[in-house]
Amino acid sequence: MTPDALEAALRRIGAERYHNLHPFHRALHDGRLDRAQVQAWALNRYCYQSHIPMKDATLLARLPTAALRRAWRTRLVDHDGETQGEGGVARWLVLTDALGLDRSYVESLSGVLPATRFAVEAYVHFVRDRSILEAIASSLTELFAPTIIGERVSGMLRHYDFVDRQALAYFTPRLTQAPQDAAFALAYVCAHATSVAEQDAVLEALRFKCDVLWSMLDALEHAYVVPGHIPPGAFRP
Ligand SMILES: O=C(O)c1cc(C(=O)O)c2c(n1)C(=O)C(=O)c1cc(C(=O)O)[nH]c1-2
């Protein structure tokens, strides 16, 4: 495949499998969830957010050139900040605060669904164990993130009186960070996946990552949408 055909194939995977299509996200964005269900989403999503810098630090340690490490390290700063209280993970806690969740409970991850934890850990392990090409390709869901963020912020502000713009401030910087991150990763992947085997591996890495995001929402749906089977130990609204 040419680089352009590879990009088109990657975008087709997003069109078919990205988590904007999941019924739980449709319900979240269309205002069909109650406050407790939104709390469960934000609590579980904190597990994902808090592991993203661990995933990026794992990859950073494996990158072979200064240029690549320089490009990738901005992600660590985006999520962890330069100082206490800054960065994406801290901004996610502003959302869980606004939803009335106790900070130490959120940070402890003790109420997170087992399937959320397994999915998030699978992502970190994938980036640790697979080739650098596959690890970089697995971040390419970010190509599709700006669209879902736009839908989510406008939908949640319209439908829920318990969130406001300040509570959703996490998403504003993501609208510029995600496209920059995705453009870098896409250029890398298109330049370096030249053999059929490498291109197949890259496509499979993106499918894997879509599955990570999808399975987190399956778990939320199973636990918190009626009839609701909440696993032992997980958050009970
Ligand atoms: O709001 C979303 O739906 C969404 C999706 C994704 C994604 O597609 O992986 C990320 C994020 N948000 C996000 O905020 C974020 O920091 C992030 C990092 C990564 C990654 O794989 O390195 N994906 C995502």
From TrEMBL:
Keyword Cell inner membrane: no
Pathway the protein acts in: Cofactor biosynthesis; pyrroloquinoline quinone biosynthesis
EC number(s) reported in the record: 1.3.3.11
Organism superkingdom: Bacteria
Keywords on record: Oxidoreductase, PQQ biosynthesis
Residues spanning the signal sequence: none
GO molecular function: pyrroloquinoline-quinone synthase activity
Similarity annotation: Belongs to the PqqC family.
HAMAP family: PQQ_syn_PqqC (MF_00654)
Function: Ring cyclization and eight-electron oxidation of 3a-(2-amino-2-carboxyethyl)-4,5-dioxo-4,5,6,7,8,9-hexahydroquinoline-7,9-dicarboxylic-acid to PQQ.
Name listed for the protein in its UniProt record: Pyrroloquinoline-quinone synthase
Organism: Endosaccharibacter trunci
